[in-house]
Amino acid sequence: MKKKILIVLSYVLVAALACGATLAFVYSGTESSKLLDLEDLILTRFAGEPDQTAIEDAAADAMVQAMGDRWSYYIPASEYDDFADNSANAYVGIGVTVQATEDGTGLEVVAVQAGGPAAEAGMELGDIIVQVDGTSVEGMTISEVSAMIKGEEGTSVTVTVLRSGDGISLYMTRKRMETVVASARLLNEHVGLVTIRNFDERCAQETIAAIEDVLEQGADMLLFDVRNNPGGYADELVKVLDYLLPAGDLMRTVGTDGSDETMTSDEKCLNVPMAVLINENSYSAAELFAADLSEYGAAKTFGQPTSGKGFYQNVFRFTDGSAVGLSIGRYYTGHGNNLEGVGLIPDVEVRLDDESEALLYNGMLEPENDTQLQAALEYLMDKVVRP
Hints:
Layout: E1 12-15, E2 22-25, H1 34-45, H2 52-66, E3 73-75, H3 77-87, E4 90-93, E5 96-100, E6 107-112, H4 117-121, E7 128-132, E8 135-136, H5 142-149, E9 156-163, E10 166-173, E11 175-178, E12 182-186, E13 191-196, H6 203-216, E14 221-225, H7 234-244, E15 248-255, E16 260-265, E17 274-278, H8 285-295, E18 299-303, E19 311-317, E20 323-333, E21 348-349, H9 354-361, H10 371-381
Parallel strand pairs: 13-14, 14-17, 17-18, 18-21
Antiparallel strand pairs: 1-2, 3-20, 4-11, 5-6, 6-7, 7-8, 7-9, 9-10, 12-13, 15-16, 15-20, 19-20
């Protein structure tokens, strides 16, 4: 129980008519926090058995929500490690990507990460995960099954899969895995597709490496995909933009603490035709990335308007291990535009149908069926110099 100093509580008990309740009126001789007083009252007078951690988590989350800022968020201590792992583009698990089966009886393995525990144990594409440590996963969500599979590094888990109708139990030891942040592939002899999944740790390193790899394969044009990209760190974004764009301003941040910083690019740049795919789930650094390329005239944008996030957050951690991501300033594009509530409107607006959006989200939408990608590809191919 939290202790308070120099606070005098005077309780006046009044019988409430017709309800049999008791009302407590609190007087404090000095200024106090209503929330702390309420917590003390619950912990000392409530007839049940209150969970102090649950009370404080709920109160903290409600305080953040009450600001009306959709970008600020509260992180309970129990969820902080997962948050930190996500920001580091890493996790402790077995190295698989799954999707729900149509009948809900299990999860289909659609990717097996090389060098991961699942790959080493012999898990294959198309396997259907039906049990984790002997517990059936029928009817469970992907998140629920993932929570069962994840655990402490070095601990073991047994995953039972169906393969050609046979049940196979695979024993594996969990280990820390790094997720792929950026990848590239040739769409044709001219265009390289560079997919950037977020702008968290290792984004710049992997993105630049992916670009250089696809250029070495013969691409002379680039199509960037930042759809469903939640954003990330400003310094990772600036490194990528600095690699792509000529000298000039890339991003400005103005904080509530009076700070005002402008990040710039040097003269070296990549002078090839470019286009960017965006959608309503392109957030923060992802929409700034597309906006700067557009403002510099380096790329055209295709897809749907972005989310419109113009605030940046810092994460502040508390002594109990919980944390809050609080909006503490605004950011602006290199040309001084703040996207809050507006977003980036694509040069060419193309909407995917619901089925295609679901496939895109799960990484299963093939380029030939991707109307947004095809529109951008057509634009780039018109720039091919033909004899």
